[in-house]
Design a protein that fits this description.
With 112 residues, this protein is of the alpha/beta class. The chain has helices at 7-16, 29-34, 45-55, 69-82, 93-99; strands at 4-5, 21-25, 36-37, 41-42, 61-65, 87-90, 104-105. It has a 5-stranded parallel β-sheet with strand order 1-6-5-2-4. Strands 3-7 form a two-stranded antiparallel sheet. The longest helix is centred in the last third of the chain and has 14 residues, at 69-82.
Length: 112
């Protein structure tokens, strides 16, 4: 697994149905709710290092994205130092994903 991945590479893996990967959006939850890569989970950066060992196997393929690639790279490096061996940043994050025309999700709240 490369330290950086293009959105096209991840989309190809998803289309082939390759198992054992997780897409992690490390932005704050309000940004995640407004728009995120389809299938991504929200774990804000400030809690990721605590949550990751409880949630993922050490050799699971983890794709990380944030607001900037620099932020993503810092977080990916922290995960590698913590012992995760297969971490890649998703270059361009949700903006690149949208620009490629790939599906995004948003969390909407129903008003009752």
């Amino acid at each position: 697994m490369q330290p950086e991945s293009r959105v096209y590479d991840l989309k190809e893996r998803l289309d082939w149905g390759e198992p054992a990967l997780t897409i992690i959006d490390v932005r704050d939850r309000s940004e995640f709710k407004s728009s995120h890569v389809t299938g991504a989970i929200s774990i804000p950066a400030d809690g990721l290092l605590t949550a990751a060992p409880k949630c993922f196997e050490w050799d699971r393929d983890l794709y990380i994205y944030s607001n900037t690639d620099d932020e993503s790279m810092v977080i990916a490096d922290q995960l590698r130092q913590a012992g995760f061996s297969r971490v890649s940043i998703l270059r361009g994050g949700v903006a690149a994903w949208k620009a490629a025309g790939f599906p995004v999700e948003a969390v909407t709240m129903a008003v009752v």
